[in-house]
What does this fold into?
Amino acid sequence: MPALAARETLQPNRRGVLPDSVRPYRIRWRYAVVIGLVHVLACLALLPGLFSWTGVVACVLGVHLFGAGINLGYHRLLTHRSFRTPRWVEYALASLAICSLEDTPVQWVAVHRMHHAHSDDVPDPHSPLVTFLWSHLGWLLMVNPGIDTLSFRERFAPDLLRDRFYFTLEKHGYLQVAIALAQVPIYFLAGFLGGWLTGGIDEGVRLGASVVVWGVFLRIVLVWHITWSVNSLSHLFGYRTYETGEGSRNNWLVALLAVGEGWHNNHHADPTAASVQHRWWEIDISYYEIKLLEALGLATNIVKPRHLRAGHEVPQ
It folds into this structure.
């Protein structure tokens, strides 16, 4: 592909323009309340009594594990079909993603496919050419009938709606809520048992609460902002290897935090590829995890990047 075009020349008509379907402006209260409440609960991690190294470890490991539900499950597997797994692995990854409170599999996939179809153009649900805050968070807080209807999901994610598991989750919203809430007592019980065995019931309650605050609420907030940074930072800051007709960029910081997803220009140049590592130093840990699944016999039909499929070199 030819080398770069400056981001300022991309979709100049889009700058500051919201999707037409957002008007008239209305707050999406269900999302606003949940996002606000979880952020408030995550701030409990600032209380000295709720600090524990067990909670910190649960948070760090959880960011990676549950983040893999988004990166591997929702994104590379369900949205782009970059590889195949047995159904139970696919459903397990989707369940991890649900625990990150980033919407149902069908809705997430449909929105992301629409993003690729109209990236940085007016219909794009979360382009930073509106504003940074809009792409990072604002688009989730506003009612947008253009992405909130059954016809939208049928258009962009018909394959998932044909699957009984995903259709059931979409039809019965309480099931997703139940999956997400189930992690709270599980984390509390794990922390409580550890604290009880080492320091009695009071320590058990304290450690259980600490593990919930750090391992669930703070972890969810961190996964949110890491995911949202792919939409915002990776369409504003970084370098471009490919001319893709929109503002995607390779951002090393987002790539580090999102274990590869920040090589976003590479991804937009070749969305179906399982790997976004086009140069040796563009480390893509998510792809290495796909290869690990392959070594375990749990991943097949892994799509290589286009330049490898065609025998071409990456543009310098």
About this structure: The chain is about 60% helix and 0% strand.
